[in-house]
Amino acid sequence: MNSQKGGRVAVGRVARPHGLKGEVRVQPFLSNRDLLRHIPRFFLSREGPERLIPERVREAPGGRDLLFFFQGVTSYEEAEALRGRVLYAETADFPPPEEGEFYYFQLEGLPVREESGRLLGRVVGVMPVGPYDLLEVETPEGRSFYLPLVEEVVLSVNLQEGYLLVRPSPGLIEVQLGEDRE
């Protein structure tokens, strides 16, 4: 099944203090940044106990960042100590996705299969690159290639059975792996 179930995922980075009273600017790693507003606690490492409880969240001026006040962070100096720190969230703290939707962290580790049933590899990450995101897929031989995360290529995401069904454009994978077409 899914290797990420029940763990922590990186959801943002503290960019810098905002003002003098402990507020910090957070750069979200999630395509839906508003999810950060619903997460009740953040951790400062993937496994450690150090955590931050949000008291208030608001829009940052001029961009896609959010401004957070965390419990116990009440001065510029305390906010400055968080600069550059990655924020992690427990996957259990995410609100359940809508029917037919998924979180990117749920895709990591899932097998990627063509319609013929041929295993292409496993998802190792998702990269936002512009108008669509890219799935990074690692082959059984340890090489990587990318597939656009669009309906024409990713036909279905089956979280229950744990796999992605894809229809890559002819030659798309071979070109990336430097293989001759047959």
TrEMBL record:
Recite the UniProt keywords alphabetically: Chaperone, Cytoplasm, Ribosome biogenesis, rRNA processing
Q: Which biological process terms from the Gene Ontology are attached to this UniProt entry?
A: ribosomal small subunit biogenesis; rRNA processing
User: Membrane-spanning residues where?
Assistant: none
Is rRNA processing included in the keywords of this UniProt record?
A: yes
GO molecular function term, any single one: ribosome binding
Subunit composition and interactions: Binds ribosomal protein uS19.
User: What is this protein identified as?
Assistant: Ribosome maturation factor RimM
Q: Which organism is it from?
A: Thermosulfurimonas marina
What is the organism lineage in this UniProt record? Answer: Bacteria, Pseudomonadati, Thermodesulfobacteriota, Thermodesulfobacteria, Thermodesulfobacteriales
